[in-house]
Amino acid sequence: MSSATKVPPSPTKRVLVAGGVGNFVEWYDFTIYGFSVGIVASVYFPKGNPTAALLAAFAVYGVAFAARPLGALFFGSIGDRLGRRNALAAAILLMAISTAMVGILPTYNSIGVVAPVLLVIARLAQGFSAGGEFSGVATFVFEHASPRRRGTWVAGVSVFALVGMGSAAVTVLAFSLAYPTEYKAWAWRIPFILGALVALVGLYLRLRLDETPVFRALEASNQINKTPLRDAFRMHGRELCLLFCAFSYQAVAGHSIIGYLPTYLHEQVGMKTTTALMIAGFTMLVGAAIGLSMGRISDTVGRRPVVIAALASAAVLTIPAFLIIHAGAGLAGGVVAEILLVAPFATILGAMMPTMMELMSPAVRYSAAAVGYNLPYMIFGGSAPFVAALLVSWTGSGLSPAIYITVVAVVALVAITAWLPETHRVGETNPDTGSAVSPLHGDAVP
Which of 62, 155, 197, 251 would be 381's cystine partner, CB 3.0–4.6 Å? Predict the structure, then answer.
């Protein structure tokens, strides 16, 4: 086994806390826009046509996803060439600045068309930052973890994204209740500013971390890849296609839940916004528990059966969940329906993130994972709320978004069932060659 692939020591609490807190902050900051989209539409766009303003606000939600692959390319290259820690510190600093920008921008009434232009710039910066965050944290923790605990540890920091999303919903809910008359005027800005401040705490924690043992070993053995992006596509084309399939479902489902469903519950079902946010916050926290459990289970039974079960569940449960929502079942029905939607999404998160790490060679891991994760989010995640709202507008059916999610889940299920190898023991020594062997190509991992 080469020095670059020796099993690193188990991660310390400091690594897990810094990775988890950073992930929490990044996804709190990124998704709080989705929970505030109704107010954003009224503040930053002309008020003459509320439907057009709402669609425009959803479109700006999607703009951030266009920047995510660019951020993936940029931060992935930094992470593979200059170190995982440096890339993660830069990503969270950019998120802090761009989130603060959303919170302090002047309104459309104050500066006219410049307001939505600046909003787009802020969202692009948020998306650029997010492109290097999630897969970067997974890489960082994975490279500290022992082989038999990788699913647990990677899932553990990954589900902090769901905690961040849930906390964003709870924060918006809390301030809307605390300032019922002032919220639409100015108090809606406070959650954005708080997110920026907490991001600086995440930056401090990350700067105190050491580089990963795997990256230090690559440096010591002169195996740092100078062209990680090019080699990621050359070495891992098939793996990237598999990631695209799995994360396409996750992108559509996740951002339909985050960016569209609260607005749908209010606009189409007539549920109070506070109730919709309460449901979103609670179910995201439930999803975090599910994702962590599935990561732990995947360490025992393998990643492949967990991922397949998640996609099969999504294909079966999505339409019934929307039927419950559309029936106006109230708070209890809304909770049940969103848990049915969140559970497959969270399971993919818990099992597919360590799978992604195990599929990639160490020298290009950050770049390959960042591209494989963020490209489907650009295509499907950013457009999910807009497409969902558009489908309902065109068809007049509240079930049309559910059909869309189901179709994507079925396509992903077919691809994953046919081609995803089992990876949870990848990295252990091959007794014949003494090397860690790629599950798809049989080539020794650098």
Answer: 251
